[in-house]
Each structure stands twice: as C-alpha cells, then as structure tokens.
C-alpha cells in the first residue's frame, strides 16, 4: 500500500475536536483503499503560546517540511486585544511553506428536508500571501491631534500570476472530473469558467495590477483561451450576485481579503461554516484547513461540526494526487447529511462523534 505521513496541527478550541474526527475518517479509509497513513502531531496555537511563549515552534515547521506528505490544520484562537509576542501561526505557516493559494470549494448537498436550498458548486481561490494581510499597519497623530491609522496593501505581479494560474488549472481539473459524471448529475454543464474578483474601478493601481496580470496569464495561454471562459466581477456586486445566483459561478479567484470575506459569506449559502473546507496549496506542499475558526462558544461541548475538517482531509488528498479516495469521502459526507446526521449548527442534535461515526459507516 501507498504510505503517507500527515502532520496534524489541531491548535485551539474545536480544532482539537474536529482534527481527531478527520483523522478517524482517514484511518477508516486506509483499510479499504490500499493507503497507509502515519500521523504526526504538531504543536501550534494560542494555548501553546500561553504555555511556551511561541505560537509556532520551529519543530512544527521542520517536521512538516521534512517529514510530511501533507498536513491538516484545525483552528487558532486570536486574542481580541494585542498580546505582546503573539502572531497567528496559520499566517506564518502559509508563509514558511509558501502555500500561496487558499482553495475553498463551496458545495451544497441536496437536502430532502430543504428543497428550496440553492444549488451551489463553486471553487473560491483566495490569494494567500499578500493584500492587507501583510499586516503593515501604523497609527499616527496629525497636527490637529487627530489619531489616524494606515494599512499598506501589497499586490504583486508574481502572486497574482500564480493565483491566476492555479485558478485556470483547477478550472480544467474540475472540468475533467465533471466529464466523468453522468450529464444529469452535473451542476455545471457549460465550459469551465473563471471569474476574477477585483475593485479596479476604485483601486486602479493595486486591483488593476491583479486584474491585468490574471488576464495576461489567460491571454498568453492558448489552452486556457480555448477551454475556459474568463469573466470578471467587482467585489461588491460579486457578493450580491453570489447570494442571488450562486449557480452562475464556477471558479472564482480573489485577492486575500476579498477571498476571505467571500468564502465565509459563501458558507452561509450552504448552511454553516462547519461544512466548508479549504486547502492551503503551494507548489510543493498542501495543508487542509476548515474555513471556520476555533469557535470558543461551543468548544468542549461535542457540538462542533466535523464535516468541514473531514472535507478538508479529502481536499488534501485530492491535491496530493488522490482524487479517488477524496471523492469517496465527499460521497460519504453527502450520505451522512442526507441521512439526517446533523450537529446543532445545522439544526440537528447529533454530536461531533456521532457525525464522524456516520461518515465512517458510509465510507
Ligand atoms: P468561528 O468560525 O470560530 O465561529 C463563528 C460562529 O460559527 C460561531 O458561532 C461558532 O460556534 C460557529 N462555528 C464555527 N465552526 C463551527 C463548527 N465546525 N461547527 C459548529 N459551529 C461552528 O469565528 P469567530 O467566532 O469569529 O472566531 C473565533 C476565534 O477563531 C477567534 O479567536 C478568531 O480569531 C479565530 N479564527 C481562526 C481562524 C483560523 O484558524 N483560520 C479563522 C477564523 C477565526
Ligand atoms: Mn475567514
């Protein structure tokens, strides 16, 4: 059997509940798929910081980089006030491992109890390394003693180009998976489509560079031009259209901040943040990560929905060359939801453990 070493970084809050759930599903999968997983626990997070003075020990970075074929991250808590010496380990990990795109599939599951649910099957690609998240902020006081603050926003040609290229490649990959499905099961029946999100009518220099660079990638790659439709949407109208007609979008590529906001918003379309997975993807490493945070309001109560983390494990497999086992997990998750196993965020009363057991049962 193929042997894979997966780094597990549960970190804080419900991260410590949903990552073990994802691990359980992977272990269950391995017995039936000629796969052998070895799991390595890695430390990180705010709790770890409070005990040890660092949120991301060097050992975690080294272990992931040198010993692991991929990783799964849970969630971190960030203090609401500034704590000296603390900075988010997830932002640092994305940087250390050069995970330059955050890939977020938002997919609705047909729900017999909710026939009015909109049909959503889109992939949001969020640039992961720059924009306002470079965190160059400063506070000043002007000559009239008025306090103001300025944040720098970085958009580079290089980061825009590789985010764009990933969007086009993933649009093609989604298309080839669709081609294997019976036509009546496909939600997207046309040519693959990539939508560039920007606000270059106002931010003509930064978002202008983003838009022009991605357009350039498209125009210079004949395969993209013949096989993909390129669209664009201003970020504000993107939000509007995404809620009105989510079925109009296939792959969406956005700068870091817009991508963060859009994908949390898109989670509302499919019922809960607890359902939406993501993967941080670079050229040499992939780290799955549920979109949600550490949810301190429900931590330790067996209420956390494990599906976002379980789907993140599937997305990890998909992005390290194992689409078959990944799709088995997706199908088992759909079966679990359709059978009515739901945690409280979806209006049910199942526990984290019951939902996880059900996914294993349907695998
Ligand atoms: P959150 O995603 O933790 O929670 C938002 C709401 O959704 C809460 O009501 C929570 O109970 C619910 N929720 C989230 N995940 C759920 C799940 N799997 N099952 C059931 N319900 C779920 O966001 P927040 O409340 O804004 O932030 C809480 C903490 O998480 C903060 O410290 C924040 O900084 C951090 N955070 C971390 C990440 C990350 O690790 N990437 C992302 C967002 C927020
Ligand atoms: Mn977010």
TrEMBL record:
One GO molecular-function entry: magnesium ion binding
Q: Which SUPFAM superfamilies match?
A: Isocitrate/Isopropylmalate dehydrogenase-like (SSF53659)
**Every Isopropylmalate dehydrogenase-like domain range:** 5-359
- GO CC annotation: mitochondrion
- Could you list the residue ranges that cross the membrane? none
Q: List the cofactors.
A: Mg(2+)
Q: Which InterPro entries match?
A: IsoCit/isopropylmalate_DH_CS (IPR019818), IsoPropMal-DH-like_dom (IPR024084)
Source taxon at top rank: Eukaryota
Protein family: Belongs to the isocitrate and isopropylmalate dehydrogenases family.
Q: What is this protein called?
A: Homoisocitrate dehydrogenase
Task: Provide the gene name from the record.
Answer: LYS12
């Amino acid at each position: 059997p193929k042997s894979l070493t997966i780094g597990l970084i549960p970190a804080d809050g419900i991260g410590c509940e949903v990552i073990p759930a994802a691990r359980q599903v992977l272990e269950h999968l391995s017995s039936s798929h000629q796969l052998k997983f070895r799991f390595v626990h890695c430390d990180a997070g705010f709790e770890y910081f409070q005990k040890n003075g660092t949120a991301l020990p060097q050992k975690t970075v080294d272990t992931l980089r040198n010993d692991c074929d991929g990783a799964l991250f849970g969630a971190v808590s960030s203090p609401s006030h500034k704590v000296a010496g603390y900075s988010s380990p997830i932002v640092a990990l994305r940087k250390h491992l050069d995970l330059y795109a955050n890939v977020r599939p938002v997919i609705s599951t047909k729900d017999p109890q909710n026939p009015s649910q909109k049909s959503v099957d889109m992939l949001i690609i969020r640039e992961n390394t720059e924009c306002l998240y470079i965190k160059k902020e400063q506070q000043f006081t002007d000559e009239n003693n008025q306090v103001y603050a300025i944040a720098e926003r970085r958009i580079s040609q290089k980061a825009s180009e590789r985010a764009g290229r990933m969007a086009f490649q993933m649009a093609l990959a989604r298309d080839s998976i669709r081609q294997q499905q019976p036509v009546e099961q496909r939600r997207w029946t046309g040519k693959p489509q990539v939508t560039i999100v920007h606000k270059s009518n106002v931010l003509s220099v930064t978002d202008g560079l983003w838009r022009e660079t991605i357009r350039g990638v498209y125009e210079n790659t004949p395969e993209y031009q013949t096989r993909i439709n390129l669209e664009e949407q201003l970020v504000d109208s993107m939000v509007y259209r995404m809620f009105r007609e989510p079925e109009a979008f296939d792959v969406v590529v956005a700068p870091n901040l817009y991508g963060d906001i859009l994908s949390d918003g898109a989670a509302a379309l499919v019922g809960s943040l607890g359902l939406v997975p993501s993967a941080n993807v670079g050229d040499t490493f992939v780290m799955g990560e549920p979109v949600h945070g550490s949810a301190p309001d429900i931590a330790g109560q067996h209420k956390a929905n494990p599906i976002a983390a379980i789907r993140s494990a599937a997305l990890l497999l998909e992005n390290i060359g194992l689409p078959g086992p990944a799709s088995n997990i997706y199908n088992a998750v759909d079966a679990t939801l359709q059978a009515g196993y739901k945690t409280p965020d979806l209006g049910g009363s199942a526990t984290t453990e019951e939902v996880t057991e059900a996914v294993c049962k349907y695998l």
